[in-house]
Amino acid sequence: MNVLYAIFEASPFAKSGGLGDVGGALPEALRETGADARVIMPKHDSMPERYKSRIKRIFSFQMQLGWRTLYCGVEMLKYRGVVYYFIDNEQYFKRDSLYGYGDDAERAAFFCKAVLECLAHLERFKPQIIHCNDWHTSLIPVMLKEYFGDHPYYSDIKTVMTVHNLKYQGIISRHCLGDLLGMEGHVAARERLSWGDAINFLKGALHYADAITTVSPSYAEEIKTPYYGEGLDGVLRWREECLSGILNGIDYEIYSPSSDSLIPETYRSGEWEGKAANKRALQGELLLPLSPRTPLLAIVSRFTEQKGLDLVAHILEELLGSDDVQLAVLGTGDWRYEEMFYYFADRYPEKLAARISFDDRMAHRIYAGGDMLLMPSKFEPCGISQMIAMRYGMVPIVRETGGLRDTVTPYSDATGAGTGFGFMNYNAHELLFTIRKAVALYLDGPDGWRRIQDSAGAADFSWKASARQYVKLYEGLCRRKRQPLLTL
Ligand code: GLC
Questions:
Q1: CA–centroid distance, residue 481 to ligand 1 (Å)
Q2: Ligand 1 pocket: which residues have CB below 6 Å?
Q3: CA distances, 358 to each of 126, 330, 438 (Å)
Q4: Which pTM does this prediction carry?
Q5: Which residue has its alpha carbon closest to ligand 1 atom 5?
Q6: What is the mean pLDDT of the chain?
Q7: Could you tell me which of 146, 151, 149, 148 has the C-alpha nearest to residue 185?
Q8: What tens digit of pLDDT does each residue of 205-237 get?
Q9: Which fold would CATH assign to domain 272-460?
Q10: Is the domain 2-249+465-479 a CATH 3.40.50.2000 member?
Q11: Strand partners, 375
């Protein structure tokens, strides 16, 4: 099975969030099932020098994008057994950050076209499947059928579109349909991409891809409803036969407390006393009182509305004002949340420590030293931190939505079973009461707490199971004759 995995970020070359973790881990897991999975991604300028210096240029060509004639270089690097192809164009990818530019849609369109054009030049590798991820790659299924549909090399290639986050869709001016894509005259494409007065890249992929997946079964159901559908629930219901959810895993080579070189003291899963030294070191590093029995809560997150930080904003005063807890916060994002955490760190320096940065080392230290991880997300396609936390004996407190619902079994008073704590409604006081329930159990003595840690630590979130499900999906697609597109 030959799979080309197209993605905008893959760790350790580029990562802005969970997407980069998936890009860095799933292809390797696919290879372990016997598939020849290779990754294709932009050559971002921020790639660490140690990789940049090992990259080899394999070929280059000139490419049309609308009226533009553009240089496209293809470079290659083998890492942990996986071949990575990098698309090089300095105008588009020699930037400080991965995203956040006025021409992001143009950069994405360039990447998609480059992926398809370079295929025919690759020696000894022809993909049967192109697996696309999020809106940046979502023109691949569209262009494959619109530009290359009848071409003998391309006609039997199938596409999978994985939605990691439906909120980001790639919406741009309608004018770009002709200007960027040269598809003004493609009547069906115009309809399928159309989004009011604009065009929507992801909507296009949802129509054109042979299969659509999301990163958890619950999210796959949720996005068919208007509340979670971000305006695309209609298209998703229309294509529900092709829509499924496959849970992400975590990379156990990176996230294992017994071999983690970034934490002060390693410990084995189940031997949770090993966390004590890490907690002490973390409290010390964060300048919090060195108190072993004070529950140490943490938030490790991108600071966006999605992550439920509005609920946190509502209850922080009440929580920090009256409860004996500590809170470690790590992340960056919307300035209003950054300001909020600075404010509370200033007001309660003995209780809240905020590190407003993207700091991998600190994240590992928090997982190792912390007691509870807060993830009150408004929606969560999968979520990775809760799975890492569980592996490190840190108990997650989550809103039961999407992947959080699929990975955390809420604690039951009646049976004492569970792998974390959960609440249902997007309501600040439900969060507060759930935190208090967890804190009460923690303070009640080690037995009940240990039981939750043990069950959480025993959960299997390796990539193996996910990889097997993807391969099954790919095989099903390859057996199928290409389906005509559903007519609108
Ligand atoms: C996005 C989602 C997150 C998911 C990640 C990887 O960042 O918000 O829930 O875990 O993608 O699939």
A1: 31
A2: 17-19, 22, 164-165, 215, 248, 380-384, 403
A3: 37, 7, 27
A4: 0.94
A5: 18
A6: 96
A7: 146
A8: 999 999 999 999 999 999 999 999 999 999 999
A9: Rossmann fold (3.40.50)
A10: yes
A11: 398
